[in-house]
Each structure stands twice: as structure tokens, then as C-alpha cells.
Amino acid sequence: MSFAAIKIIHIISIILSYILFSLRGIWMIQGSPLLRLRWVKILPHVIDTILLASAITLVAMIQQYPGFNIWISTKIGALLLYILLGMVAFRFGKTQKIKTISWILAQIVFFYIVLVALTKNPTLIF
């Protein structure tokens, strides 16, 4: 598969992942029973698996590896923080306030990851 095709798959999976994350967060804040639907629990894992596989493929194709390229390493570190905050928001948060704050912080981290990806600059200073 071509670089362009993998990149399109990656971008589409980013968009779908974010939309679903946002929707789940809104449902969590509202206390919606939709959050307990089977597809809502499964689909994020499917999308995120495609996202991760396309990311690994792209990194291999451009030969810019974590540990050697600061922007890739930064994105991975921020991704781990995003995942941790998402876990607090949807599983481990003890109160609604903690869950909501974690969800909001995860969104901030998500946009940071996108900016680092677009600029290839983890400090975001131009």
C-alpha cells in the first residue's frame, strides 16, 4: 500500500477516534445509557487499533523512529498521557468531576499531539 493511502487511513482513523471519544465524553457527562451499548465499547478499540497500525507503518515508511526523532518520541509520550486520561475519564475516575476534568485534559493533549504531528516540533515554537 502506498504512503498516501496509509496516511489517509491514519487521518480518517484519527478523526473517527476523536469524534467517538468526544461523543462518549458527552454521554458520560450526561449519564446517558448509550455509553453502555455494546458497539460503543467495541468500536473505539477497533478504530484505535487501525490508528496504531497505520502510525507504526508510517513511522517505518518515513524512517523516523522514537528515540532518534524528538517529535515522534514526544507524540508517543503524549499519546500515553492521552490514554491514561481517557482511562480515568471512562473507567477509573471516582467522581463525575474527576471524570469530566480528565476528559477535558485528554482533549487538550489530543490537540497537542495533532499540533506536534503537523509542525514536527514538540515545543510548538516557530
Detailed description of the structure:
- This protein is mostly helical.
- The chain has two domains: 1-63; 78-126, no CATH class.
- It is built from four helices and no strands.
- The chain has helices at 3-30, 38-62, 70-92, 96-119.
- Helix 1 runs antiparallel to helix 2 (38-62), helix 1 (3-30) packs antiparallel against helix 4 and helix 3 (70-92) runs antiparallel to helix 4 (96-119).
- The longest helix has 28 residues, at 3-30.
Radius of gyration: 16 Å
The overall average pLDDT, rounded, is 93
Number of helices: 4
Number of strands: 0
Q: What's the short version?
A:
The protein is an all-alpha fold. The chain is 79% helix and 0% strand.
Annotate the secondary structure layout:
Elements: H1 3-30, H2 38-62, H3 70-92, H4 96-119
Helix pairs in contact: 1-2, 1-4, 3-4
